[in-house]
């Protein structure tokens, strides 16, 4: 691990998370290259929410993320699009930029919201965000998550079809478990996103289970996980609960304090630094 991170931990036997207040570009610039195994993050997108003041220099953030990612490391970029004045697809422009600077597109996944507030009067309710899985070379780690094979709607299971559309296996022949699809669905709101009431002092928390599922898929115990725009600390909580190391950055001191308190309520120690 880089000295700048390690130095913050020397006084604690089991240091848990490091939370840094600052612009993530400046913070990451102070690190050595190739130290991060996995980043799970969600940027502020298209001014969809009102944060406590922020800067979002996307290209500089992307450049730094590429530099600090270890060979074989993975970046999970969770992002939704807003449609305004007939313009959209910021998320895809960001994914294309990631490819241009050297990341490989490993997968384009969807985070489906099982329940979602009505958002527009003249269009269907938006119920998903993109999850771009970008890697530095081939991902060094992949632990595919499994789920029970559904016993209903078999005609809907794509892996159960031959190219001509005829079912390949009978119900009895199907395995009990199969690797998940790349569409992941989560309930949102209190009890779905998290049970931690304090987290909702932040306006845009993503589900704990989403963060955990990526952490389990793309990293190993002991790995260093980053969220450069960590908000209420969701990625950090799930990283620590799964024996990973964590460093989180947020430009807002208020959000970092929410993250610190939230981790503390789960018995997870965190130290806070200010980027100077
Ligand atoms: C979508 S929220 C992240 C929420 C988080 N995933 C959670 O579950 O709580 C985006 C965060 O990015 C932070 N942010 C925006 N620009 C930043 C920057 N340049 N450096 C660090 N943090 C930034 C905002 O303050 C906000 O908390």
How does this model look, in words?
- 24% of the residues lie in helices and 24% in strands.
- With 276 residues, the protein is α/β, with parallel strands linked by helices.
- It folds into 2 domains: 238 residues, Vaccinia Virus protein VP39 (Rossmann fold, 3-Layer(aba) Sandwich); 31 residues, no CATH class.
- The chain has a 9-stranded mixed sheet, with helices on both faces. Strands 6-7 form a two-stranded antiparallel ribbon.
- The protein is globular, with a radius of gyration of 19 Å.
- About 5% of the residues have low confidence.
- The structure holds S-adenosylmethionine.
- S-adenosylmethionine (SAM) binds next to strand 10.
Write the CATH fold name of the largest domain.
Rossmann fold
CATH architecture of the largest domain: 3-Layer(aba) Sandwich
Instruction: Report the sheet-strand fraction.
Output: 15-25%
What's the CATH superfamily of the largest domain, by name?
A: Vaccinia Virus protein VP39
Distance between the termini: 21 Å
Radius of gyration over C-alpha positions, nearest whole angstrom: 19 Å
Q: Uncertain runs with pLDDT below 50, 5 residues or more?
A: 7-14, 152-156
Structural domain tally: 2
Which CATH class of the largest domain applies here? Alpha Beta
Helix fraction, binned, reads 10-25%
Could you say which structural class the secondary elements and strand pairing correspond to? alpha/beta
Small molecules bound in the structure, each named once: S-adenosylmethionine
Task: Please tell me what the overall shape is.
Answer: globular
Q: Please tally the helical runs, counting DSSP H or I stretches of 4 or more residues.
A: 7
């Amino acid at each position: 691990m880089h000295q700048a991170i390690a130095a913050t931990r020397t006084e604690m036997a089991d240091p848990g998370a490091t939370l840094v207040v600052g612009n993530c570009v400046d913070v990451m610039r102070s690190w050595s290259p190739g130290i991060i195994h996995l980043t799970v993050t969600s940027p502020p997108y298209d001014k969809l929410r009102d944060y406590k003041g922020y800067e979002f220099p996307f290209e500089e953030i992307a450049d730094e993320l590429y530099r600090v990612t270890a060979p074989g490391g993975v970046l999970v970029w969770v992002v939704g699009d807003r449609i305004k004045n007939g313009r959209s697809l910021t998320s895809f422009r960001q994914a294309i930029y990631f490819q241009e600077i050297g990341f490989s597109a490993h997968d384009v996944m969807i985070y489906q919201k099982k329940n979602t507030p009505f958002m527009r009067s003249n269009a269907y309710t938006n119920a998903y965000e993109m999850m771009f899985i970008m890697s530095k070379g081939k991902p060094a780690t992949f632990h595919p998550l499994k789920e029970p094979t559904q016993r209903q709607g078999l005609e809907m299971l794509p892996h159960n079809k031959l190219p001509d559309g005829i079912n390949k296996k009978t119900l009895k022949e199907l395995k009990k478990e199969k690797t998940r699809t790349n569409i992941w669905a989560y309930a949102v709101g209190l009890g779905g996103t998290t049970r931690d009431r304090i987290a909702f002092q932040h306006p845009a928390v993503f589900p704990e289970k989403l963060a955990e599922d990526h952490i389990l898929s793309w990293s190993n115990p002991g790995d260093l996980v980053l969220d450069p725009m960590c908000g209420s600390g969701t990625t950090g909580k799930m990283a620590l609960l799964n024996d990973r190391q964590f460093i989180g950055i947020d430009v807002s001191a208020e959000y970092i304090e929410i993250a610190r308190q939230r981790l503390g309520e789960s018995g997870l120690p965190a130290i806070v630094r200010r980027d100077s």
